[in-house]
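Standup notes
- HV: blocked on the assembly model, inputs below
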Amino acid sequence: MPVPLIVCEAPLKALPESLLVGVSGGVDSVALLHALVRTGRKPVVLHFDHGWRTESGADARRVRALAEHLGLRHVAGKMPPTAKLHREAEARVARYVFFARTAQRLGISHLVLAHHADDQVETFLMQLLRGSGAAGRGMEPVSKRAGLVLHRPWLGVWKKQILTYARCHKLEWREDATNTDTRHRRNLIRLRVLPYLQKQIGQPVAINLLRAAEIFRAESEWLDGLCAMMADQQELTVKDLRGTPLAQQRRTILRWLQGWSVKDISFADVEAVRGLLENNIPAKVNLSAGRFTRRRSGKIFME
Amino acid sequence: MPVPLIVCEAPLKALPESLLVGVSGGVDSVALLHALVRTGRKPVVLHFDHGWRTESGADARRVRALAEHLGLRHVAGKMPPTAKLHREAEARVARYVFFARTAQRLGISHLVLAHHADDQVETFLMQLLRGSGAAGRGMEPVSKRAGLVLHRPWLGVWKKQILTYARCHKLEWREDATNTDTRHRRNLIRLRVLPYLQKQIGQPVAINLLRAAEIFRAESEWLDGLCAMMADQQELTVKDLRGTPLAQQRRTILRWLQGWSVKDISFADVEAVRGLLENNIPAKVNLSAGRFTRRRSGKIFME
């Protein structure tokens, strides 16, 4: 089997047998669906219509036809009519709500997504440059979200390899015209920033960033494991937390705030809560959406 | 005291009393020297002449005059005549050899350097884009090198703040003409890449990168502590290492190889040594400069 085919199919071997797969109709997800079927699985095809493009109804019909052609079950969803279109964050939430509901209804909790190495590099670079509370680490190959187990087996596979795979198998897909619109930050990173960096630095920048993301991701997983015991408690114990390294304090606080579903946690929020470990400052920290934490009798509480 | 003055002087308070300080004659190190004297210290001024510029002799004379004016001891060094000029790496080595010898001769092991937040962002971004074995984490605020303890108290202070400080105190310094030469990669990052990213992303990119570097740096310190026990052994024990998380295996191997002074350790080297933990592959890994590791009787050896 030629290399791109091995590269694309090998990471699918470890996936569970019973699966949902998100298929937009673009080359990545069409190739993923094909590869899943070739490994002997019969995934349920989920398509979500964001209503972003005039031809999005045509995408939905094509994906349904493809599923029927492959003899696979197919479920379609679309943005609720009240939603504000073009809001990426809102569309993402609506898409995951659709995925989670369908998963529950069908009793299949594993969802495979076609995110690949180029997506991972773009995500990692965006997180780093935009600044995020935990610094950027890219996407997880396996993660949990709203009762779903998300699998991204292609985070180590480059778009170029997926295209080769799709051409080898004579697959048909639709190009998404919004992929070239640099008003979307992700497209800007892909089409302008990464080529610029590559040219200026004279090094395979995307490969280096993918490797860095993988190093940080694996370390993050390890560190989360070390923090879980403290971060999963109702309250943080000042004395225990004070005895841990700086980075462990930060990460425990971040995970603890996330556990309480605090939104938009910034690095400054984490550092402010960490300030509660000192004795001589006011023992209250304001967070987003009117929530706050307080230190009392050697414990840090969420209120 | 105006804010830039506090920002520049506060981080110096925690430094030891007896110090060496590296002074090139540029604004950063001249301001650092001034601030150190203002905190009541009498550091020994070290100047290293790289011979890069025709006027570098003038720099050396100015730094000596400045030290004499402040009543401070002064030691000058220069590149050995056999060295290849313009080789940044070689110059760095020669500089640290000079620093280390002087430290030993004077019996003062603490050296303060004027690296600042802009330097840190540039270093971090270069490491990320060029790809380094441990992924980028920037410079350490305190580190050890060849018997020296290096202090970089200004990694959180921006160049702009140092300039304000220098102007407030009416300091005199020399502009380094090589700072605008974009053939040097660091200058390229500072003068082109960072302004470009700032413009494209529309966010305070340098601030976000500095924060990410600080998060990763603190985590790195924590992880190194967790790996020290295994990494400081003569051999790695396969069974023990196999029982640790992926990232711990990687980092333990990296630190162990560094402990054996292996040069140019790439991520691929680390992964190859990690491959020795599996049973079914050839039990030898080649490293740089003809060195290699081997697995035998459940241990990994350096040979």
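- HV (later): unblocked. The interface with chain A takes residues 128-131, 134-136, 185, 188, 192-193, 196-197, 200-201, 203-205, 207-209, 211-212, 215-216, 218-219, 221-223, 225-226, 245-248, 250-251, 267 of chain B (CB under 8 Å). The first helix of chain B runs from residue 3 to 9.
- Next: hand off to the docking folks.
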